C-alpha cells in the first residue's frame, strides 16, 4: 500500500477507533516492559538478564505474578546498601579517627543510614520492593568468632530495624515473615558469620554460652566456620579438611537446643558433611553452589548436599559468578538450581544471593572522601585460594540482587512448577526456620 492509500484509509477510520488503537498499542508496549522501574541501576541489569534468558512476554507476566504474589525469603544475603555521608566521614578523618574507627563508621552508614536519611530510606525501600523480596536472612555479624567483633553489625541492623518499623522490621519467626507479606512490608532475620566463642577455654559449656545470648538478641542462624579453621571445624578455604571437631559436635548440639540454624556455607566439605550427620534439626548451606555442576571450593559436592537434605534442610545457590563457573551469569545460576531441584527435590533448594544492591548515590559520596588511614591489605578471614577466573559485566549484572524476579522467571523457563518455585524462593527457608524454633 502506498502513502496516499494509507492516508485515505486512516481518514476513513473514526477518530475514536484510532485513539483506542493507539492506547492499546501503548499499553501493549508498556506491558512488554513491565520490569522497568525507571532506576537505571535496576533496569540495566534486568535488560542484560532478559537478553540472556530470551523469555516470551507470557513467561515474563507469569513470573511477575508468581514472584510478587509469593513470600520471598532469601536464605542469605544483604539488604540494599546505603550511600555513606561523605561530610560526616571527612569530619571524622580530620579529627584523627583511626583506621578501625573509619571502617566502623563506613560500615554503619552503609547498613543503617536508611534510618536517618529520607533519600536513603526511599532508595532502600524502592530497591527492596522492586526485588519482590519479603525477608532476607541478613548477615549481621562480621566474619569470625569474637563476640565483640560479631556484635557490631548486629548493632547496625538493630538500629535500622528499630527506627524503620513497620516498613522494615527485625523478625525471628516464620509467622512474622508471612505477616510482613500480607502487610506489604519487608524484614530482616539475623544471621552471623561465626559462632560467638568466649575463647577462655575453661569448659565446653562455658565456651558456648554466648550462643544463647546472641539468640536472645535475635540471631537465628550461625556459620559453623568461615573459610579458615576454628575450634569447631575447618573452613572452605583450608587446603586440608579434618571435619567437625569434638568441640564442633558440642556446638552443633547447643545450636540445635537453643534454636539456631547451623549454616555450613563457608565450611569445608567434610566439616559440612559431619555437621549434617550430627544435627538433629534441619540445617543449611545458605549460599553455595553445586560441585556436580562446577567444582569450586566454595561449592558443595553431592554427598554433602545429600547429607544436608537428609536433615530436611536446604542448600541456597549464591549469585557469585566466580563460584558458578561457565560464564558465571544467570543461566549458570539456573544450572545450579536445576541440579538441586532435579536431583534432591525442590523442597531442598533456595537462593542466597550473597550480593547487595548499592544506593545510586554512593559513588558520588565516596568521590568526596578525604584519604583515610589504611586498613589491613590482606584480611584474615578471606583465605581465597587463587584461581584464573575472570568475571564480566554481563555475568555480574545478570545475577544482580535486584534481579530476583528474573530468577523466578528463569525457573519458569526451565519447566519447574509454580509450587516448586514457591518453595525455592521462600517456602523452604520458612520451613527450616520454623523447624528450628524452640
How would you describe the overall organization of this protein?
This protein is α/β, with parallel strands linked by helices and 438 residues long. Helix content is 50%, strand content 9%. The chain has 20 helices and 9 strands. Strands 1, 2, 3, 4, 5 and 6 form a 6-stranded parallel beta sheet that branches. A 3-stranded parallel beta sheet has the order 7-8-9. The radius of gyration is 24 Å and the shape is globular. It starts with a helix and ends with a helix.
In short:
The protein is of the alpha/beta class and 438 residues long.
Helices, by number, come to 20
In which range does the helix fraction lie?
Answer: 40-55%
Mean pLDDT: 92
Radius of gyration from the alpha-carbon trace, in angstroms = 24 Å
Q: Encode the helix/strand succession as letters.
A: HHHHEHHHEHEHEHHEHEHEHEHHEHHHH
CATH architecture term: Alpha-Beta Barrel
Structural class: alpha/beta
Amino acid at each position: 500500500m502506498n502513502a496516499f492509500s494509507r492516508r485515505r484509509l486512516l481518514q476513513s477510520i473514526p477518530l475514536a477507533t484510532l485513539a483506542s488503537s493507539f492506547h492499546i498499542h501503548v499499553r501493549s508496549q508498556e506491558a512488554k516492559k513491565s520490569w522497568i522501574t525507571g532506576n537505571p541501576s535496576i533496569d540495566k541489569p534486568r535488560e542484560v538478564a532478559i537478553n540472556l534468558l530470551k523469555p516470551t512476554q507470557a513467561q515474563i507476566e507469569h513470573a511477575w505474578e508468581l514472584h510478587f504474589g509469593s513470600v520471598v525469603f532469601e536464605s542469605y544475603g544483604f539488604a540494599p546498601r546505603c550511600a555513606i555521608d561523605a561530610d560526616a566521614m571527612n569530619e571524622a578523618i580530620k579529627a584523627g579517627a583511626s583506621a578501625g574507627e573509619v571502617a566502623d563508621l563506613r560500615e554503619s552508614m552503609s547498613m543503617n543510614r536508611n534510618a536517618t536519611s529520607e533519600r536513603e530510606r526511599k532508595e532502600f525501600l524502592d530497591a527492596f520492593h522492586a526485588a519482590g523480596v519479603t525477608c532476607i536472612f541478613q548477615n549481621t555479624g562480621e566474619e569470625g568468632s569474637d563476640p565483640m567483633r560479631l556484635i557490631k553489625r548486629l548493632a547496625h541492623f538493630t538500629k535500622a530495624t528499630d527506627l524503620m518499623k513497620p516498613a522494615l522490621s527485625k523478625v525471628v519467626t516464620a509467622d512474622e515473615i508471612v505477616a510482613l507479606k500480607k502487610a506489604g512490608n519487608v524484614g530482616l532475620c539475623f544471621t552471623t558469620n561465626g559462632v560467638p566463642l568466649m575463647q577462655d577455654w575453661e569448659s565446653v559449656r562455658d565456651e558456648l554460652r554466648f550462643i544463647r545470648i546472641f539468640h536472645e538478641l535475635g540471631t537465628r542462624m550461625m556459620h559453623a566456620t568461615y573459610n579458615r579453621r576454628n575450634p569447631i571445624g575447618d573452613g572452605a578455604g583450608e587446603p586440608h579438611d579434618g571435619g567437625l571437631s569434638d568441640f564442633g559436635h558440642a556446638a552443633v548440639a547447643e545450636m540445635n537446643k537453643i534454636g539456631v540454624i547451623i549454616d555450613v556455607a563457608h565450611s569445608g566439605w567434610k566439616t559440612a558433611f559431619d555437621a549434617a550427620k550430627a544435627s538433629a534439626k534441619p540445617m543449611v548451606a545458605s549460599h553455595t553452589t553445586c560441585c556436580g555442576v562446577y567444582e569450586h571450593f566454595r561449592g558443595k559436592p553431592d554427598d554433602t548436599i545429600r547429607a544436608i537434605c537428609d536433615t530436611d534442610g536446604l542448600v541456597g545457590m549464591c549469585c557469585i559468578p566466580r563460584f558458578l563457573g561457565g560464564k558465571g551469569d544467570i543461566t549458570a545460576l539456573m544450572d545450579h538450581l536445576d541440579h538441586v531441584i532435579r536431583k534432591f527435590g525442590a523442597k531442598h533448594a533456595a537462593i542466597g544471593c550473597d550480593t547487595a544492591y548499592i544506593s545510586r548515590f554512593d559513588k558520588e559520596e565516596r568521590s568526596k572522601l578525604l584519604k583515610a588511614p589504611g586498613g589491613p591489605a590482606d584480611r584474615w578471614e578471606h583465605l581465597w585460594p587463587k584461581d584464573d577466573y575472570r568475571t564480566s559485566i554481563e555475568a555480574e549484572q545478570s545475577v544482580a540482587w535486584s534481579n530476583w524476579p528474573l530468577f523466578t522467571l528463569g525457573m519458569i523457563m526451565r519447566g519447574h512448577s509454580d509450587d516448586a518455585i514457591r518453595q525455592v524462593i521462600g517456602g523452604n527457608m520458612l520451613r527450616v526456620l520454623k523447624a528450628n524454633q524452640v
